[in-house]
Amino acid sequence: MGVVVSLDGERDKRPSLDELHALIADDLQAVNEEIVKRMQSPVALIPQLASHIVAAGGKRLRPMLTLASAQLCGYEGHRHVTLATCVEFIHTATLLHDDVVDESELRRGMQSANAIFGNKASVLVGDFLFSRSFELMVEDGSLKVLQILSRASSVIAEGEVLQLMTTNDTETGETQYLEVIKSKTAQLFAAACRIGAVVAERPNVEEDALEAFGMNLGIVFQLIDDVLDYRADQTKLGKTVGDDFREGKITLPVILAFRRGSEEERTFWRRCLEDLEQEDGDLERGIDLMNKHNALTDSVDRARHYGAIARDALGIFDDCPEKRAMINLIDFCIQRAH
Fold it and tell me: Would you kindly state where each structural domain of the chain is located, as residue ranges?
């Protein structure tokens, strides 16, 4: 049995994105400029709506991974900036579509685009950003990059459909849940990292290592996101706390609490998540049951496990500031739960 490595880092220093930001600051600024330039359109509603979500204060984690991976691999050109922009457009398009599907009213603490502009406009501008991302891939001219990012886009869509199929189904197990989050979240993390090695023309072993890092980091990120839906306050989360519960989404904290609970507790979960017959106080009771069965704590421990795998994936690279900053990013993602 493998040993779960603690990734808390130094007790007196909370992990942050500052180290990574400092290393890629110029490239990230170039990405932000490219984003603004590439989302322009003579159809006024498109840049208006796109800029609402793009400028809403996201961390830019996925494009940051492309920039950091390319830098880790010694790349000195400009292609990684354009491709990081492409990655952000794919991510933003999925956010626009997700908020429509989930009927979300908040995104990063602000009104969601669909709440302001309506569902039709959000879906269509999401389509525009997907299309623009493919234009950027074609401009890059690499069939390998096109293959990686187009495959990621289709897998993300598959993951969203799979999540739709598991919503309201309390019989969903951890294996199926992991399949969902690998597809809908971790796949883009993995692709964002891999193309950093591709543009630097590094050997396949380095491409594979960066893909593994991104995949496992993406799993960490989504696991913690799912914990935060039951643990964070609304200001910290950037969306309404308990949205997953109200929508009947089956995430790992629910799976663990359901499997470990009594038949009476399972009846509660079925009423709330399958039938969506929710009453005042049900969310609080659900959180109490999760705490009773250590479902939230153990979900964070799962994240630590995948974080350890992500850390090991970078083992083939020599020690350098970029490698240390990327490892620190694992700690940052986990620490969001505290």
Answer: 18-335
Which is it for strands 110-111 and 106-107: parallel, antiparallel or unpaired?
antiparallel
pTM comes to 0.91
Tokens representing residue 35 in the block:
């984003």
Is 190:226 a contact under the CB 8 Å cutoff? no
CATH topology of domain 18-335: Farnesyl Diphosphate Synthase (1.10.600)
pLDDT tens for residues 84-110?
Answer: 999 999 999 998 888 888 777 766 667
C-alpha to C-alpha distance for 36 and 326, rounded to whole angstroms: 26
Whole-Å CA distances, 20 to 59, 66, 193, 224, 325: 12, 12, 14, 20, 5
Q: Using only C-alpha atoms, what is the Rg of the chain?
A: 20
Nearest to 90 by CA among 192, 164, 21, 180: 192
d(CA 266, CA 281): 17
Whose tokens are 């900036």? That residue is: 81
CA distances to 36, 116, 135 from 48, rounded to whole Å, are 11, 11, 20
